[in-house]
Amino acid sequence: MSGHDGIIHYSTNAQNYHTASVSDARATRPYICPHCGATTNAAVIANTNPNYSTDNVAWSRCMGCDLGIVENNGTVSPSPLVGEKVDGLPAEVGAAYLEARKTAGWGAYTSCELMCRKILMHIAVDKGAEEGKSFVQYLDHLLTTGYITPPMRPWLDLIRTHGNLSTHRLEAASQERAYNTLAFTTQLLRLVYEMDHRAQSFMTPGP
């Protein structure tokens, strides 16, 4: 079965060592892969035997990207990516967005909101603002150049406000607030970058 191929199994002569067929119902587990983001039935390479251990540990492999997943008593490592993939992002913007998604998955919600705030700066510089300006100047640049339209202004204010709270207040961001901040950041990136990226693939070359 795909996912179980190309694996070296280190067997033991211990009495409590057991093997099972890949056709066994326990040979796969459903996951959202923390590496590629695919919803998949990962191939279980090994798991603890409940007859000999009170801990439930499973070592699995994504059938999409072939990378490993470990589940310890219901906790998956690495943590799954939170948020949606956005196509057409410049390298630095994409790296910042990936970091925001990762920190949300790790439960570092304050860090997630800080990254979403920083993404606004990345967008402004990518769209022509001079690096080293103040945060307010970056926002003004996005507004005056039209990359942020009037209907999108509340999204910008939400990302800015939540980012400022995480920057200047001691209180930690909640999961709900961070997830909402990330969701609005996703939609902002989608309208600024992804839709143009998609449109380019459908444009007919000139004569």
In summary, what is this structure?
This protein is of the alpha+beta class. The model has no long low-confidence stretch (mean pLDDT 86).
The gross shape turns out to be elongated
Percent in helix: 40-55%
Q: What would the CATH topology of the largest domain be? A: Four Helix Bundle (Hemerythrin (Met), subunit A)
In the CATH hierarchy, what is the architecture of the largest domain at level 2?
Answer: Up-down Bundle
How many discrete domains?
2
Radius of gyration: 22 Å
Number of helical segments? 5
- What is the end-to-end distance? 50 Å
The oligomeric state of the chains shown is single chain
Unreliable sequence segments: none
Give the ordered list of helices and strands. EEEEEHHHHH
Major sheet: arrangement of strands: 1-2-3-4-5
